[in-house]
Design brief:
The model is unreliable at 40-48 (pLDDT under 50). Helix 2 runs parallel beside helix 3 (156-162), helix 4 (177-190) packs across helix 6 and helix 6 packs parallel to helix 7 (253-264). This protein is 29% helix and 23% strand. It has a domain at 74-378: TIM Barrel. The strands form five sheets. Strands 1, 2, 3, 6, 7, 18, 19 and 20 form an eight-stranded mixed beta sheet that branches. It is globular. By secondary structure, the protein is an alpha/beta fold. The longest helix is centred in the middle third of the chain and has 17 residues, at 225-241. Bound molecules: (4S)-2,6-dioxohexahydropyrimidine-4-carboxylic acid and zinc ion. Zinc ion (ZN) is lined by residues 170-171, 197, 248-249.
């Protein structure tokens, strides 16, 4: 026995909400879930443990999870790990350490690396590097089009074989509706979900949300329509092809409305938002703070409310960080010139728990959006079930702390949440039955 998690209050939405002992075998798989065994004083790692089934087991380690909440491992389906090519911003090693600290047992890494992940060599490089030095599982998302140029499709069969789990040109839209249609059609037999970065570039020339704040600051604006037009196009292509589309980082209220309406008609669509869109508004740009600059931009209060409503009524299926590390070289600049993107792996769970505390959604919904739904969208094993790999997050719901980016695990510090107070954090992150983070 590799690990026993005793007295685990498992919250696996739609499946289990009970206190059990979790037995994890030497292969890192969940072997049994049993009612808690009777306590015997002085038991520690390596000692004999007799469960109610009468079977004896020697565990390498026993974790007492009393007082914590034990959930399926969190999955962040939208992360930029910057390797290969921009290792000064983040590496697979540092990014996955940040992920583990944030309670994530798996991340999907976007293909806008240097070189772009549009071929077998790059996908295999990421897979091998992650096996060598990754703290958590890394699932490469390969490009939809060669070089992210929107001109020619990549070889999806080759990418799938190399280990890609999904397709996206994230960072850029697929401008041509025809190419997007073909991408959906060719992705289907490969069983590679398509993740769409929705941006109409004819409208998205600004540097922050279009509105009174941009006017006051004298910055050029990006209207909500720059996103929602493309969301509507992709809904139409989803209907045309019958192939599911996953909409990335939804920020605008019109996008939420369009997705809600399409889902009601039965269009096989899924969507994610990022914690910053339900936590902040464009007011956070304040005094030209580049740590509040990302694409799509922080929107107005009405949009933030619509995003929250979309989470509450499950129009938005998933929460993903869009963790986008940049160094001071790209961020310590005048607002117009600064790069888009903020880090998010170490604040996502805390920001999600704030929404639960505010009554916007339930804890079960949060875990659905941070684990169950991403797993379903990506075709991964779902939940804390016997036979599944033991990817588990143990959350201390009462731990209060102040987040300091300077003490974070990411190589980069570009976050608007520096100094924020949180209640609730990952206490243990367990991948394949191994503790990869504990605090
Ligand atoms: O803010 C963003 N940063 N949005 C994107 O779409 C790309 C990302 C990045 O790669 O930095
Ligand atoms: Zn994007």
């Amino acid at each position: 026995m590799r690990l026993i998690i005793k007295n685990a209050h498992v919250m696996d939405p739609g499946h289990l909400d009970a206190v059990v002992d979790i037995y994890i075998d030497d292969e890192g798989k969940i072997l049994r879930l049993e009612p808690p065994a009777l306590e015997k004083a002085g038991r520690g790692p390596g000692e004999l443990k007799r469960g109610p089934s009468g079977k004896e087991a020697i565990a390498d380690r026993i974790i007492d999870a009393s007082g914590y909440i034990v959930t399926p491992g969190l999955i962040d389906m939208h992360v930029h790990l910057r390797e290969p090519g921009e290792e000064y911003k983040e590496t697979i090693e540092t990014g996955t350490r940040a992920a583990a600290a944030g309670g994530f047992t798996a991340v999907c890494c976007m293909p806008n690396t240097f070189p772009v992940n549009d071929n077998r060599q790059v996908t295999e490089y990421i897979v091998h590097k992650a096996a060598q030095c990754g703290s958590v599982r890394v699932y490469p998302v390969a490009a939809i089009s060669r070089g992210l140029k929107g001109e020619a499709l990549c070889d999806y069969g080759e990418l799938k074989e190399a280990g890609a789990i999904a397709l996206s040109d994230d960072g850029r839209p697929v401008v041509s509706a025809q190419l997007m249609r073909r991408a959906l059609e060719y992705s289907r037999p490969m069983k590679l979900p398509v993740i769409s970065h929705c941006e109409e570039i004819a409208l998205s020339g600004g540097v922050m949300n279009e509105g009174p704040v941009a006017t006051r600051l004298g910055l050029s604006g990006i209207p909500n329509a720059a996103e929602s037009i493309m969301v509507m196009r992709d809904i139409t292509l989803c209907e045309l092809t019958g192939v599911p589309v996953h909409i990335a980082h939804v920020s605008a209220r019109e996008s939420v409305a369009a997705i809600r309406e399409a889902k009601a008609r039965g269009v096989p669509l899924t969507a994610e938002t990022a914690p910053h869109y339900f936590s902040l508004t464009d007011e956070a740009v304040g005094a030209y703070r580049t740590h509040s600059k990302m694409y799509p931009p922080l929107r107005a209060f009405k949009d933030r409310e619509a995003i929250r409503q979309g989470l509450a009524d499950d129009t938005i299926d998933a929460i993903a960080t869009d963790h986008a590390p940049h160094s001071v070289l790209e961020k310590d600049l005048e607002f117009d010139a600064a790069a888009n993107g903020i880090i998010g792996l170490e604040t996502s769970l805390g920001l999600g728990l704030r929404l639960v505390a505010e009554g916007v959604m339930t804890f079960a919904q949060l875990i659905e959006k941070m684990s169950i739904h991403p797993a379903q969208i990506l075709g991964l094993p779902v939940g804390i079930r016997v036979g599944n790999p033991a990817d588990i997050t143990i959350i201390d719901p009462d731990a209060s702390y102040v987040y300091r980016a300077a003490n974070g695990f990411s190589k980069s510090r570009n976050t608007p949440f520096d100094g924020w107070e949180f209640k609730g954090r990952a206490k243990f992150t367990i991948v394949d039955g191994r503790v990869v983070f504990e605090v």
